[in-house]
Sequence to fold (217 residues):
Amino acid sequence: MGDHAQHDSVRRSYDTVAEEYATRLHTELDAKPLDKALLAVLLEQTEPGTTIGDLGCGPGHVAAWLAEKGARTVGIDLSPGMVAAGRRRFPDVEFRAGDLLELPAEDAEFGSVAAFYTILHLDPDELHRAFKEIERVLRPSGLALFSFHIGEEIRHVDEWWGHKVDVDFRFLDPTHIAELLETAGFTVEMRMERTHYPHEVETRRAYLLARRAVSTG
Fold:
């Protein structure tokens, strides 16, 4: 399943900061109007009665925001610590622990998915597999909304809010990600970039909205 050691270090790192992360960021979307607008677009275009998956959900604040708007949501995260923190805070969201390369979800289970700042923990050669796995769990014509930091650097973090961690954040090229999505059976319908909000790390951020093909043959 890809680089087990890398995935293990990411899992352990997020387990370590899970409680503090959940406490600090549970209202994060309140100060991110563009993110909320794009999530509202996703919600509006999700087939009624279907479930929205929040991939790399952390403590589940995005899934909870969607649930507040009436969506049935499932949050999936690599970190059992994050899943536990989410379950304590957001009883309206179903949480599952699992990897982007092997999602704990049925074929075509989700009407749409959000994946905010999660594909940046994958190795470059894992991205296509992750996108095919997302395609598998989406219904035909289902939408996937991605966000990530723009660039070419790999930012290593070994200390986070006073906790010792070992995790890489890979900045990504939106054009390359769009091309990979197309090869995985998606059509990219929207691409947007923004600067950071004052309270965020100083990076440019990309958002891609991609639709799964009706049939990939």
Summary: The chain has a mean pLDDT of 90. The first strand starts at residue 51 and ends at 55.
